[in-house]
Write a structure and sequence with these properties.
This protein is of the alpha+beta class. It has one domain. 30% of the residues lie in helices and 13% in strands. It has three helices and four strands; from the N terminus they run αββααββ. The strands form two sheets. Strands 1-2 form a two-stranded antiparallel sheet. The protein has a two-stranded antiparallel ribbon with strand order 3-4. The protein is globular and about 30 Å long. The protein starts with a helix and ends with a strand.
Length: 89
């Protein structure tokens, strides 16, 4: 997706370390609300965090825990006014 590339590059530049482990270099833009759930949020910077590959793989392999820990959100948890996920900590 050509429109996504500059957003992804900016995210990875702004967050050189993984936003989950804070140890490894970030490599993957991750959609907090998955693209399949909310395609209208694909280009929304507030729906993205930068993850390293192991952490991104963990999120994909452990969706229940990722929802519980705030690395995945349901579409109903998106605050359109603030343009960011609503955290329920």
């Amino acid at each position: 997706m050509e429109l996504f590339r500059p957003i992804a590059l900016r995210l990875l530049t702004d967050h050189p370390r993984c936003q989950r482990c804070n140890i490894r270099q970030s490599q993957d833009p991750h959609h907090l609300i998955p693209r399949s759930v909310a395609p209208q949020l694909v280009l929304e910077p507030g729906n993205l965090i930068a993850l390293c590959r192991p952490c991104h793989d963990w999120v994909k392999s452990n969706p229940r825990e990722a929802y519980r820990t705030g690395f995945l959100f349901r579409s109903t948890e998106w605050n359109a006014v603030l343009k960011k996920p609503i955290r329920h900590d």
